[in-house]
């Protein structure tokens, strides 16, 4: 039986899922640890059975809803149930829809998919190959393949124009029966070259629109060493892919959807002994740990290098180790093979306290939820304790053969984003400056004096082609300071920004300690007499400085300058956004009905919506 996670077999997982759906205290929803077990399951049969249970999820399930449409050039087989299991594993409640069999081109060329979050396109070679081809003319076959690709490209770009959704495609393996039909080595090389070019051109489609994403399924199948095809099932039911291949694709579509919905993690919390280096520091000393050189030291070097690359892309690194702090500092500073020095970590918890408590403390110091954390540790006890105390943390095992740890860290796509923004790249250093601010705060008699000394500057500006991606990312990721839960994706945000009757804007903050980057965004419907704030989101890392009030003031000034008489905002409670429940009343608005607030722009010309005195907006004292 396939072992799943650290303790669950396939049968245990299925039993636990059934129990979770009948557990009223859990709301009939599998908890975080059980969902993580779903992600780690590599047995398609277990996941197909799990999907039948998960199809009975209650409507009010607390997971992020997503509408996913599957369009295919072939029979989809088990793709839908495998995708359902993967999406639920990521905390997503999917509404799945499959297009009609044999109508891929017609549907893709005519349908409007705007109500869907993702359209997954399942392709097979039959779309690109003619029924008959001349083995003496591989160049002619290559020409036909290129022509079919151009037809697909036109269909996809047309769908992008009609819809605001995202389309996920994939590269295709070349069946052996096609390749080996060419008995000359030159002919076989020519047809393989044409097929490699097809896959390269498919991958290049992602460069033509941000709404197109392409999975390198060929590379993934080669790395996982699973069969792409079962010839009997292909002939019997037009199923060009095995369940193992479909699961590999479902995992990638899940990773994309997870990233699009803003469910990716931001923080990697790392143990030290037998995780970032081999050996126990307290026993062997800084010079005795295994790091660099031959196996196993090169495994730990590779893990550090991977963590370093994640940090360069915006992942926040945190140390969580039961160890002697002075010895750790010595090792991080002086070991010649150490890649991650002290300044690589935005927060450090090196002590003998509970790791679960240290992770909570690190989350508080970073103003992040613990559900933003991934925790990597070699100790089953420590992993089990963190999983029990903080089930929302993704807990990964670093024990066993150290050669496998990098694969363990990367395989589930915990940190995937659709596109890197400038703020992502700056994030680790942004969070390091928080400690400096905390030290600076100790010398002031009042919070207002401290805030004034910070020299806070808010840059508010309408969306540009450079900020659209970050604005959409904030909408997707922000859960606590998110007034309505409306989350326009990047394509919809771009459409709104370009329309005459909407305002889409970003808010960036900097102070004497550094630039926080874009930390807030708003989407506003602009009527002649009234402006309505569809949503306003803000990163929790800047709360407590009055930035949100200054941003509302800027929106009010824009509305007033455009001739509007009132500005209206809403608050829709989600169970996680109580932190911003009083924003509108704190900004001088009056509640006119449940959850709806309004500001009289004429009466407020010099009134309650003014910015805090310590914040400078767009270079001028507000």
Automatic annotation (TrEMBL):
NCBIfam families: FkbH, HAD-SF-IIIC. The lineage of its organism: Bacteria, Bacillati, Actinomycetota, Actinomycetes, Pseudonocardiales. InterPro entries: FkbH_domain, HAD-like_sf, HAD_sf, HAD_SF_ppase_IIIC, SGNH_hydro_sf. It comes from Labedaea rhizosphaerae. This is D-glyceryl-ACP synthase. Gene3D superfamilies: HAD superfamily/HAD-like, SGNH hydrolase.
């Amino acid at each position: 039986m396939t072992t799943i996670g650290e303790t669950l077999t396939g049968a245990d997982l299925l039993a636990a899922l059934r129990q979770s759906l009948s557990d009223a205290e859990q709301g009939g929803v599998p908890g975080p640890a059980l969902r993580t077990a779903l992600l780690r399951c590599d047995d398609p049969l277990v996941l197909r059975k799990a999907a039948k249970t998960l199809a009975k999820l209650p409507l009010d399930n607390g997971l992020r809803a997503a509408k996913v449409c599957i369009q295919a050039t072939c029979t989809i087989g088990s793709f839908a149930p495998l995708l359902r299991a993967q999406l639920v594993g990521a905390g997503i409640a999917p509404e799945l829809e499959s297009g009609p069999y044999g109508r891929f081109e017609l549907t893709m060329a005519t349908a409007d998919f705007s109500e869907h979050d993702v359209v997954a396109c399942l392709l097979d070679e039959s779309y690109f190959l003619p029924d008959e081809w001349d083995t003496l003319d591989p160049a002619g076959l290559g020409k036909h393949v290129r022509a079919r690709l151009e037809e697909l490209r036109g269909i996809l770009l047309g769908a992008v124009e009609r819809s605001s959704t995202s389309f996920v495609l994939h590269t295709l393996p070349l069946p052996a029966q096609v390749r080996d039909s060419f008995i000359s080595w030159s002919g076989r090389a020519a047809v393989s070259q044409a097929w490699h070019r097809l896959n390269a051109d498919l991958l290049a489609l992602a460069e033509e629109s941000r709404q197109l994403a392409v999975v390198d399924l060929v590379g993934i199948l080669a790395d996982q060493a699973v069969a792409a095809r079962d010839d009997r099932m292909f002939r019997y039911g037009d199923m060009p892919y095995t369940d193992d291949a479909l699961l590999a694709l479902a995992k990638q579509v899940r990773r994309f959807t997870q990233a699009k919905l803003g469910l990716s993690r931001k923080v990697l919390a790392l143990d030290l002994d037998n995780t970032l280096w081999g050996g126990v520091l307290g026993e062997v000393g800084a010079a005795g740990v295994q790091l660099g050189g031959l196996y196993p030291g090169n495994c730990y070097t590779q893990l550090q290098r991977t963590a370093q690359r994640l940090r360069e892309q915006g992942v926040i690194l945190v140390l969580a180790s039961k160890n002697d702090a002075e010895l750790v500092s010595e090792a991080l500073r002086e070991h010649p093979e150490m890649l991650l020095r002290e300044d690589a970590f935005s927060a450090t918890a090196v002590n003998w306290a509970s790791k679960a408590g240290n992770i909570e403390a690190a989350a508080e110091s970073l103003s992040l939820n613990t559900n933003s954390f991934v925790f990597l540790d070699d100790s089953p006890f420590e992993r089990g304790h963190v999983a029990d105390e903080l089930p929302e943390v993704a807990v990964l095992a670093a024990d066993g053969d150290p050669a496998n740890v990098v694969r363990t860290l990367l395989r589930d796509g915990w940190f995937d984003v659709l596109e890197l923004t400038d703020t992502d790249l700056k994030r680790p250093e942004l969070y390091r400056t928080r400690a400096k601010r905390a030290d600076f705060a100790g010398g002031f008699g009042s919070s207002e004096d401290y805030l004034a000394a910070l020299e806070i500057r808010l840059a508010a500006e309408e969306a540009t082609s450079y900020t659209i991606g970050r604005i959409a990312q904030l909408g997707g990721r922000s859960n606590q300071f998110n007034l309505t839960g409306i989350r326009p994706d990047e394509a919809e945000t771009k459409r709104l920004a370009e329309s005459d009757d909407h305002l889409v804007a970003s808010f960036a903050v900097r102070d004497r300690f550094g630039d926080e980057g874009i930390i807030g965004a708003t989407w506003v419907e602009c009527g002649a007499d009234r402006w309505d704030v569809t949503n306003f989101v803000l990163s929790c890392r800047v709360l407590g400085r009055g930035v949100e009030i200054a941003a509302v003031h800027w929106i009010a000034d824009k509305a007033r300058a455009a001739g509007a008489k009132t500005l209206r905002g809403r608050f829709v409670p989600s169970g996680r956004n109580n932190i911003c429940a009083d924003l509108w009343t704190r900004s001088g608005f009056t509640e006119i009905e449940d959850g709806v607030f309004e500001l009289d722009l004429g009466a407020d010309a010099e009134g309650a919506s003014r910015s805090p005195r310590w914040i400078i907006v767009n270079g001028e004292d507000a």
